Amino acid sequence: MTDTIRSPYDLPTPCLLIDLDRARNNIAMMQRRADALGLKLRPHIKTHRMPYFAALQMEAGACGIACAKLGEAEVMADSGMSDIFIANELIGADKYERLRKLHRRVHVRVGIDNTVQLAQMERAFAREEKPLEVLIEYEVGEARTGVVGDEQLLALGKAILAAKHVVLRGIFSHEGHTYRAADLNDCRAKARAAYARTVRAADRLRALGAGIDTVSVGATPSVLSGEDFTGITELRLGTYVFFDVGQARALGAFDRCAATVLASVISKPEGARVVLDAGAKALVSQNRQTGICATAGFGAIKGAEDITIETLYDEHGVLNSPRFAAMAEIGDKVEVIPSHICPTVNLYDKVWLVSKGKVLQSVPVVCRGRSD
């Protein structure tokens, strides 16, 4: 198909475009950041879900990859990734049977925050030659998963140390609450506090006798603006590969946004109302109302980022902007920067790589649907 398609604007809409030059620059930028800090970089592939981009990240110097789901890890192992951390909690005998098989093929670690998991791990790995390596997740402010406070931390740490088939290798956290920071100074302060809590937790585990070799943190705005990473060994973050409206608003610029949804203007019913053919099946109906990553609307028009999609229906994106109505005609194609790129990628079977206004090739989103 690329033999006949030269311009991305010849592609059928809606479709997902990736500016390969920007993506490569983003990959190199974050690797330089990690290298300058003397830290390992473990990109979280939940953003792109494509072995193609994981390979580019590894070529740039990443130490391995992080996955959100076991299904992603299986796909990535099939594609040649050999050092994988599943930064999530797995529950269920079926999951641990699959993990056991993956563990025989590649170096894989997994997150843990409760003893129910530990019991399932022990049963699944009872006859394995190599123990399963785990990292305890520590809650630092996002109020999601992770042990809360010293009592839970030490109780789980002691239980793992007493286990026969599970080995404690590290601790990880995610300072996702920094997305709600009032400004970059507040973001830095929240990140510093989160990192300090994570390092302290690692020290508490070491005091129990745990052989902690990994202290892993990461969120794109806090890592890019952060100042003190004392005691941290690894950065684990994903959105930086493509950026999106939220990340661009945090950093004050859209020039790193590599992913856009190409959409067509299909209707101009009245006044300032303009309708695109990209609705909730092409752009996620998710945004943040407050903080440095606040995203008014459901996607911004590339080149006029103050103009945003106001309403999403299944197949329609509606704008109410006099300026956009004056700019756009029925049949025009426009690029929309997604409000949140990670779930947006998962809406597509493939992306189109573009460079300097030309279509290069399509790349399958191989992990799409592998949230099992």
Give your account of this protein's structure.
The chain has 372 residues and is α/β, with parallel strands linked by helices. It contains eleven helices and 18 strands. It has helices at 20-37, 51-60, 70-78, 93-105, 115-124, 149-162, 184-208, 220-225, 245-251, 322-327, 341-345, and strands at 15-19, 40-41, 65-67, 83-89, 107-112, 132-137, 166-172, 214-217, 234-235, 259-267, 273-276, 300-301, 304-308, 311-312, 317-320, 333-337, 350-355, 358-364. The strands form two sheets. Strands 1, 10, 11, 12, 13, 14, 15, 16, 17 and 18 form a ten-stranded mixed beta sheet that branches. It has an eight-stranded parallel beta sheet with strand order 2-9-8-7-6-5-4-3. Helix 5 (115-124) links the parallel strand 5 and strand 6. Helix 3 (70-78) runs parallel beside helix 4 (93-105) and helix 6 (149-162) packs across helix 7. The model has no long low-confidence stretch (mean pLDDT 96).
